[in-house]
Amino acid sequence: MLVAADRNDRRIWAEHKVRLELGIVPAVSTPVVAQVSRSPRQAQLRRFLAGCEVVPFGEREAHEAGQLLGRTRTADIVDAAVVATAALLNKTVIVTGDPENIKRLVKTCGRDVAVVGA
Asked: At what angle do helices 77-88 and 99-109 cross, to 10 degrees?
């Protein structure tokens, strides 16, 4: 979703606007920001993130993500960070451009989290 926002995808921006108008503030884990942030000139990305809660990824989240990776025998730390953050914050929806990998991790996290493709 952040990559699409950075590319100024109108649909992603429209959905983001609707969420914010409904009082739904997306949470974005810092590893996700690190994965897409490549330059201080990414104005669209920074503008999009201004309407999000950027959530620090600390030791608790790291252990949760590591356990998810171990249980699913996968290796994508950023995907695991997304699911771990959602689970620990009791979020009910994850919007992602990578729904299949995220769904696999969600199944093992023990929380009721819907996964929606962006």
From this structure: 50
Give the model confidence (pLDDT) of 97-116 as tens digits.
Answer: 889 999 999 999 988 899 98
* CATH 3.40.50.720 fits domain 2-117: no
Question: Which residue has 């771990």 as its token pair?
Answer: 84
3-state DSSP call for residue 27?
Answer: strand
| Domain layout of the chain by residue ranges | 2-117
Contacts of residue 118, defined as CB under 8 A and 6 or more positions apart, other chains included, come to: 1, 4, 12, 95, 96, 97
Q: What is the pTM of this model?
A: 0.87
pLDDT tens, position by position, 17-52: 999 999 999 999 999 999 999 999 999 999 999 999
The dihedrals phi and psi of 26, each to the nearest 5 degrees, come to -65, 145
- The H-or-E segment that residue 5 falls in is helix 2-6
